[in-house]
């Protein structure tokens, strides 16, 4: 169960969004205004005074048009016009007679409100359909990670820099094999549709290669070639800057393979994974390589173990955190970077399934709710069941080698 979000910036943003989305608020305001004018006119009429409050009715149709349907605007306009006409028959002097001007203004605002409400409703329908398409694309691009597998607990979250955007250039994926689990997290250089296309290509290559390739470095090589193909296609695109943009197309990424208590990592220009233990938080030591799409010019022999770092300090209860630079490079109003390590130490007691949400909340508090870059987080917890499974797999592998040697 998720806890309430504590970030003041995000809470205030949700409050305003909630008020904006609640239709009854915007329908209540114009009716309150009409009622207030009616009360003023009746009260002053009973006391023999002329209030001339009819001009206050003019904003009522505009308020109804903010969120109301055309028929709601029509109802408010009709009530306001009826009240304005009823109060316009009161005896007035020539110097103070503004009822005609107020009625004309009210009629004009009512007509404009009807048109605005109709146009807004049509555009809202279009936005709903676009959002549904974007949600489908997000599910296809960033599929939900399994919550539990082979003694591991996993959780992942993605937050776009723009609140109305569901997908962007950050990517992550988890592929579960019978004997091991493989993960990737990455960040495509650039934004927009080219970044999304590149992310889709990398994820497609990873999902296929992670299932069948024996070596993690080979998986990385397949992903790098996918980025290279995207760059070639982009170079042939239209526009004077297509070739230059294609030359700068790359993806920083970190690939992780978990096999029992053993971690294998290939880091390609990406922030290294963080290991959270009972004793603290520290980045894994990695042998950094150039990003996907550029690494072919610097490295050969992807089928060997070059660039692969192996860690054996993976213990039950430890957690691995993979993140993009939208987390550790987030800045507050004074330009200070987000204190990632200190925040993770404060969140040590948070369950793994809530850790990505709590971390993104902390980033939102630090930045005042203004993310300048997309952010993705994947958390993995190693349990005792995973250690037992790894030991069993290792024992089975040893027995298979022994049997093969005896067969010779």
What does this structure look like?
With 408 residues, the protein is an alpha+beta fold. It is 50% helix and 16% strand. It has twelve helices and eleven strands. A six-stranded antiparallel β-sheet has the order 1-2-11-10-7-8. Strands 3-4-5-6-9 form a five-stranded antiparallel β-sheet, covered by helices on one side. Strand 5 and strand 6 form a beta hairpin. Helix 3 packs parallel to helix 5, helix 4 runs antiparallel to helix 5 and helix 6 packs antiparallel against helix 7. The longest helix is centred in the first third of the chain and has 43 residues. The chain is elongated and about 95 Å long. It starts with 7 loop residues before the first helix and ends with a helix. The relative contact order is 0.11.
Summarize this structure briefly.
The protein has 408 residues and is an alpha+beta fold. 50% of the residues lie in helices and 16% in strands. α2 packs antiparallel against α3, α2 packs parallel to α4 and α4 packs antiparallel against α5.
